[in-house]
Amino acid sequence: SYFGHGTDNSRANLARLLDEYKELQIVFKEAHMERESLKTKNMDLVDHRSQARLLEKEREQLQEKIQQLRENAKEKKGFAELLQAVSLMRKEKKKQDKLSTTLIEQKKLLQEAELRISDNQKRLQILKGSIISGDNEASFDCIMNILQKDIDEKEKILHVKLMTSTADLQEKLKSLKREKLEPIP
Question: What's the whole-model pTM score?
């Protein structure tokens, strides 16, 4: 009988058939999954091929446009000369901008130098006046006052430069930290 009353041989055959059936189910599932995967890949491949065809058509159209523009440019008299002139004008504009920046910097330096000369001439006049008066103690006090004013002015200038430099460096540091945190493309 089939339900437990048969021989051991028939039970073994039944177990073997059940194992084969399970193996065939697994093979079927794998084959089905592979077919579905290939079907999806095939659809992607078809999509990629159509996109490639579209891109190829666009490339051909762009090449035709470029060729037409080249032919139009050849037909126009003086186009090459005009192109060269525009290029030269751009170069000259860059030079002019650079010279303007340099001129502004030089004027600023000249102004600072003239101010220093003026201050030094005033100090010299004061020192000459105190020497001519013959009062050595007054001359010494005058010289000390001038030197102290010089020191105070230089400290103020250095403080401003230091603060500006520190602020610039802090800003650069912040910028570098932001760049460090940004993902690399």
Answer: 0.36
